[in-house]
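subagent[fold] <- orchestrator: predict structure for attached chain, return tokens only, no commentary.
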Amino acid sequence: MPCAKARQIELVNIYRNSIEGSRRAEERKASENALNSTRRPRTMLSGLTFCGCCDQPYVRRGQDRYCCTSHLMGTGCTNSRTITRAKLEERVVNGLKNRLMAPEKAAEAMRAFAEETNRLNRERRSFAESDRQELEKTEAAI
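subagent[fold] -> orchestrator:
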């Protein structure tokens, strides 16, 4: 065995406990702080706003404004409008509050949920009957 390889093996054996302890600590750290290791959005609407002209994402330009990525990079969009972060967030929150949480919208959502739940239950019952018949056939064959 070459001298260098023998020395590597010797060092691994000497420092085995330290190496394994470090690995365990890293694994524990990663599992305990999984949320901290991910990249979190910096603002409430990060990655959720898009240009109405070219469908490219809106990005922060400077500290407090959003603008079209395509226009910013000069790749074809003519939408030169920008909006402040505060105005954008206010519009979105008001829209959610006034349009999505309106009583008629909530009732529509509950109705659609009930319909879908009923459809899934009917489907499950029909599969249960065919599964039961298949089981009977298999048991008779055995």
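orchestrator: received. Logging for downstream: The mean pLDDT is 82. The radius of gyration is 30 Å.
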